[in-house]
């Protein structure tokens, strides 16, 4: 078994200390951040499958999620280059009624790694909170995450509410396991991303920035964070 398999197993078991330790070891051993993320995500997929099969229940799912969250916090500095000037600003949140934040945090982390300043509004975010954040932070990008089929209507009503106010040109990106490109189009979002990697590509395309290959221009667009 490789150390990344051990990391997957530690998150599945909800062993926070071991998950963080193995994340550090994987970084030190030179595993790429994407491979480490993949090992973490594999754990959550397995947890989801076992939950669906009634082999585990919400408390077990929660301890696994906490282990993943702490391991991700250890990985974040590796993904986010220190001292790089953000090229744009985003606000992101999980929509009202939905408490899942691991995927949203991952998207936020990846956007930060792609030189985008991110204001994270957390979970269970209402339309009013999104609108207030837009007024306060004047982002170029607004990210909405939903993990439940039952909170997809919430995503729709938040996008509709955002469309009724002056967004200052900000573009809306939506995502989350039950969200599809078709749904994103129907509710009037500007972009959809299947996963955190795609969220970077979509964000940079909508913002008119160079690709995320590292060839980012050293300028900031109008209104971007400095
Ligand atoms: Co919940 N849960 N959960 N859960 N949970 C799911 C989502 C579920 C699929 C499990 C299952 O049945 N197999 C199921 C939803 C079914 C459905 O609606 N179709 C489910 C359910 C039913 C529930 C409850 C209703 C259970 C209950 O109480 N009976 C309840 C709801 C609570 C609520 O939100 N109101 C609930 C609660 C919980 C916990 C609190 C225990 C915990 C969340 C802890 C936390 O997030 N802090 C939890 C967890 C951990 C899961 C699973 C196991 C893992 C989710 C996860 O973190 N995945 C999940 C099953 C699964 O996904 N395999 C499940 C890893 C993460 C990296 O992936 O979040 O998909 P994901 O994010 C991806 C993409 O979706 C995308 O990029 C991310 C990274 O690649 N993405 C975006 C996400 N947001 C994006 C935004 C973007 C772009 C891309 O642009 C802005």
Describe this structure in words.
This protein is of the alpha/beta class and 226 residues long. Helices cover 53% and strands 11% of the residues. The chain has helices at residues 3-13, 16-28, 33-52, 58-79, 102-113, 127-137, 152-163, 181-187, 196-207; strands at residues 88-94, 116-120, 141-145, 171-175, 191-193. A five-stranded parallel sheet has the order 2-1-3-4-5, with helices on both faces. α4 runs parallel beside α5 and α5 crosses α9 (196-207). The chain is globular. Mean pLDDT is 86; it is low at 212-226. Bound molecules: CO-5-methoxybenzimidazolylcobamide. The site of CO-5-methoxybenzimidazolylcobamide has 39 residues, from α3, α4, α5, β3 and β4. CO-5-methoxybenzimidazolylcobamide is lined by residues 41, 44-45, 47-48, 51-52, 58, 61-62, 65, 92, 97-104, 106-107, 143-145, 147-150, 173-178, 193, 195-196, 199.
What is the number of strand segments?
A: 5
Radius of gyration: 18 Å
**What about the largest sheet?**
5 strands, parallel
Number of helices: 9
* Shape verdict: globular
Low-confidence stretches: 212-226
Strand portion: 5-15%
Mean pLDDT metric: 86
Distance between the termini: 45 Å
Structural class, from helix and strand content?
A: alpha/beta
Give the strand line-up of the largest sheet: 2-1-3-4-5
Q: In sequence order, what are the helices and strands, one letter per element? A: HHHHEHEHEHEHEH
Ligands present: CO-5-methoxybenzimidazolylcobamide
* Helix percentage: 40-55%
What order do the helices and strands come in, and which of them pair?
Layout: H1 3-13, H2 16-28, H3 33-52, H4 58-79, E1 88-94, H5 102-113, E2 116-120, H6 127-137, E3 141-145, H7 152-163, E4 171-175, H8 181-187, E5 191-193, H9 196-207
Parallel strand pairs: 1-2, 1-3, 3-4, 4-5
Helix pairs in contact: 1-2, 1-3, 1-4, 2-4, 3-4, 4-5, 5-9, 6-7
This protein binds CO-5-methoxybenzimidazolylcobamide.
CO-5-methoxybenzimidazolylcobamide binds next to helix 3, helix 4, helix 5, strand 3 and strand 4.
């Amino acid at each position: 078994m490789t150390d990344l398999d051990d990391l997957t197993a530690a998150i599945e078991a909800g062993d926070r200390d071991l998950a963080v330790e193995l994340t550090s070891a994987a970084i030190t051993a030179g595993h790429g951040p994407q491979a480490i993320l993949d090992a973490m995500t594999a754990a959550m997929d397995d947890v989801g499958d076992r939950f669906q099969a009634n082999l585990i229940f919400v408390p077990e799912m929660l301890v696994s999620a906490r282990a993943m969250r702490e391991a991700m916090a250890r990985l974040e500095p590796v993904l986010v280059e220190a001292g790089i000037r953000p090229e744009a600003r985003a606000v992101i949140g999980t929509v009202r009624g939905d408490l899942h934040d691991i995927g949203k945090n991952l998207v936020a982390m990846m956007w930060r790694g792609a030189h985008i300043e991110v204001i994270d509004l957390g979970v269970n975010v209402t339309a009013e909170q999104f609108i207030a954040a837009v007024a306060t932070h004047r982002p170029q990008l607004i990210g909405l995450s939903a993990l439940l089929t039952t909170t997809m209507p919430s995503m729709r009503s938040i996008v509709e509410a955002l469309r009724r106010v002056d967004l200052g040109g900000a573009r809306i990106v939506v995502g989350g396991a039950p969200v599809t490109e078709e749904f994103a189009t129907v509710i009037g979002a500007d972009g959809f991303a299947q996963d955190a990697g795609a969220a970077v590509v979509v964000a940079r395309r909508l913002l008119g920035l160079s690709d995320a290959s590292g060839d980012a221009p050293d300028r900031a667009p109008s209104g971007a964070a400095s």
